[in-house]
Amino acid sequence: MKILTVTSAQVLLFVLLTPGKLPGQEQSDGIGMEGHIRHGILVFETAVVAGPWTGSSVITGKPFSAVQVSEHTETLANGARIQQTWESAMLYRDSLGRTRTERFTYAGALPLHTEEPGHRLIRIEDPVAGYVYVLDSKNRIAHRLKILTDAEAAKQARSAERVEATPPTRRMVANPDSNPPPRPEIKQEALGKEVTDGVEVAVRRITMTTPTGLDGNDQPLVRICENHYSEDLRLTMLSQCSDPRAGDSVTRLEKLERTDPDPVLFQVPADYTVVEEKDQFRIDLGTGETAKDQ
């Protein structure tokens, strides 16, 4: 396993690619990002892929293709407003339940920091063949992971539990005179249904209130998120959050087409080398910065 050196000038960062629920699979890609902050800019250098893969529910008979668009808006203390919008992924699903996600990676934290989209991480899940492929488009390598059956996944979980088992800790006796620390208050609301771009969605709102003093705040902090989910397509069509500390973020689907995508999209290109993977692995994103700093 590659060990990344962390110094005071280079802060190691790991970001899991989960912008809310992932449209198409409604689960995490299982792909994370490692990088450093250089000259005030977040530079992603490595993709970390979990493995082996456990199967998710296969959605058949509901094909689609769409572009995932992300947006971030922030108002600074001096009143200046920064708004950034970019295409973050292309998503596909065919009638057989095969899916393809093409997620763009940028050298900076946002595409504003580079003129080229850089590396694409392509993930193909083929429940018909029983494999997940993660395509390294730079080196023309297809990393193949087996989709585990329920029995195999349960066996693997039991093995992991045995390996990670730790001696029981001493039982702590609660002090009846002590007050529990305050925790954020979370409220969930079903806001009914609406039609967006011809698709009926159920809208759910989550409000998280951080009480005064929990994070050093002198008044409550309220973060509000909404999720617009299509039961028919089994897709999250839109997710948005408003956070007083991080600004407003939106992830939505555009250019939605409800027809079968080209079958070629769910196949490994003939000029790719297939490599079998049985454990976590990494893909160099080729930013060209790592070698200069080592």
Low-confidence stretches: 1-27, 289-294
SSE ordering:
EEEEEEEEEEHEEEEEEEH
Main structural class: mainly beta
Portion in beta strands = over 45%
What's the gyration radius in Å?
A: 22 Å
Mean pLDDT: 79
What percentage of residues falls in helices of 4 or more residues? Answer: under 10%
Shape: globular
- Counting DSSP E segments of at least 2 residues, the number of strands comes to 17
Reported for the largest beta sheet, the result is: 13 strands, mixed
SS element count, helices: 2
Cα(first) to Cα(last) distance is: 17 Å
Explain what you see.
- The chain is mostly beta strands and 294 residues long.
- The two termini are 17 Å apart.
- The strands form 2 sheets. Strands 4, 5, 6, 7, 8, 9, 10, 11, 12, 13, 14, 15 and 16 form a 13-stranded mixed sheet that branches. A 4-stranded antiparallel sheet has the order 1-2-3-17, with no helix packed on it.
- A hairpin with a 4-residue loop joins strand 8 and strand 9 (131-136).
- It is 6% helix and 47% strand.
- The protein has a domain at 13-152 and 250-293.
- It contains 2 helices and 17 strands.
List the helices and strands and how they pair.
Blueprint: E1 13-16, E2 31-38, E3 41-49, E4 53-54, E5 64-75, E6 81-93, E7 99-104, E8 120-126, E9 131-136, E10 141-148, H1 150-164, E11 185-196, E12 199-210, E13 221-230, E14 235-243, E15 247-257, E16 273-276, E17 281-284, H2 290-293
Parallel strand pairs: 4-10, 10-16
Antiparallel strand pairs: 1-2, 2-3, 3-17, 5-6, 5-15, 6-7, 7-8, 8-9, 9-10, 11-12, 12-13, 13-14, 14-15
